[in-house]
Amino acid sequence: MSRLFGSVRSRATLGATLVVAVALVAAGAAVLLSLRANLTGEAGTRAERSAQAVASELAARTPLDKLSGLEAEDVPVQIVDEDGVLLAASEDLERISGTGTAEVTPAPTRSGADDDRDREDDDRDDDSGRSGDDSGRSGDDESLGPGEIAQGASYTNGSATIDGDTEDYRFAAVQVETPDRGRLTVHAGSPLAAEHSAVGTALTAMLIGFPLLLGVVAGVTWLVTGRALRPVEGIRREMAAITASEDLRRRVPEPATHDEIARLARTTNATLAALEASVERQRRFVADASHELRSPIASLRTQLEVAAAHPELLDLDGAVEDTVRLQNLAGDLLLLARLDAGERPVGTRVDLAALAREEAAGREGITVEAEPVEVSGSRGQLGRVLANLLDNAERHARERITVTVRREGGEAVVGVADDGEGVAEADRERIFERFVRLDAARSRDDGGAGLGLAIARDVAVRHGGTLTAGAAPAGGALFELRLPLAGADRGTPRA
């Protein structure tokens, strides 16, 4: 079960079905309540009309035994006086509830003399009770004159049994002031069978239709999400195959759409391309490093073997020189490895003018024109950049090398220019690649391993700056290092 609902497709289907189910239940409840309220209101209106009809007959002095409203077959009617005594009821009414009195048999009719005497007593009571506040009928909600009918009605729900049939009813109570019997209340009912039938039918339809609709929603959601996620499964399978085969030349399929999945596939392929380039660069780096190390190691081994057989032929200076070359190359490789690992420079303040003069000291033909400019970074790594640029300039300059340090906007600019042959425009980016030497005829002894400029650019990038090659005013090469001033935001290092 946990595996089934562990997929995005299953969770999407379940979520959509639950949301629709909640919406259907809420809408169904609202429909049922509205339907019930409307039908109950219609039943109340019919009951009120029946009560108003009986009240009109009473207001017109119609005798109780002549009231036409008491003869309706499906309309239970009760007429009670102010004391709650039942005066008249519908024919065949056997039982009733919800009207305030459960009596179905009217009280015995009193003689006319007793009625006249009671009315005289009531008139006297009314005259005495009106002194002061004119509220002789303290229990009445509305003052009515003789023959007047109350405009409003009160409603209750109950049941009644007529001629053996029991049903639920909506009762309306209407008050009428009769000229001869005083304040009477007419209770009339309207059956709620239609309301119960309609609500029951609607509920049955919902109980049958809602599960079917939820099934359709679940099925459609399952199909749609499956179709939408099919490219994701293709991407997953291809990535698994790439991982198993370790073939970074393969790419995941890109859907011919413009949605998030297509963008995911394109991003994945871009990541694979970058990974392939990185691995290829690493392989080439290892191969080039092995090739560069082979020459001094072979030379050193040859000298040691000769010295072992003929000590007098030992070239000690050559052996020391090869050892120094090995040491420098190992240091370059270690620094490149640390830069590739993302090592961040320390945030100390470095005066580039002082650093330029320090690196130029002891070198011939170098002129330094510098103003004090401070940057934030590693003094050792920045010194390595200047040393590599000066070493490169010394190998190609004819007579003169110029180092300038200046402030330009929010950047410190260091320029190293020589009067040599310069760098062709097509090669101004390639010379920053590792183990690249433009002069194929130049020996390794004179030209180094081709790592100096690559290290210089990597250090510049790690410090949030740039290193570019261009043409010097004197016709040679100009290498320009730009770094943000100390305290400025270096931003994200540029690759």
List strands and helices in order, with pairings.
Layout: H1 8-59, E1 77-80, E2 86-89, E3 93-97, H2 112-129, E4 154-162, E5 165-178, E6 182-191, H3 193-245, H4 260-309, H5 316-340, E7 348-351, H6 352-360, E8 366-370, E9 374-377, H7 379-396, E10 401-408, E11 411-418, H8 444-447, H9 452-462, E12 466-471, E13 477-484
Parallel strand pairs: 8-10
Antiparallel strand pairs: 1-2, 1-6, 3-4, 4-5, 5-6, 7-9, 10-11, 11-13, 12-13
Helix pairs in contact: 1-3, 4-5, 5-9, 6-7, 7-9
Describe the structure.
The protein has 495 residues and is α+β, with helices and mostly antiparallel strands. The protein folds into 3 domains: 224 residues, no CATH class; 96 residues, Orthogonal Bundle (Helix Hairpins); 140 residues, Histidine kinase-like ATPase, C-terminal domain (Heat Shock Protein 90). Helix content is 48%, strand content 18%. It has 9 helices and 13 strands. The strands form 3 sheets. The chain has a 6-stranded antiparallel sheet with strand order 2-1-6-5-4-3. A hairpin with a 2-residue loop joins strand 4 and strand 5. Helix 4 runs antiparallel to helix 5.
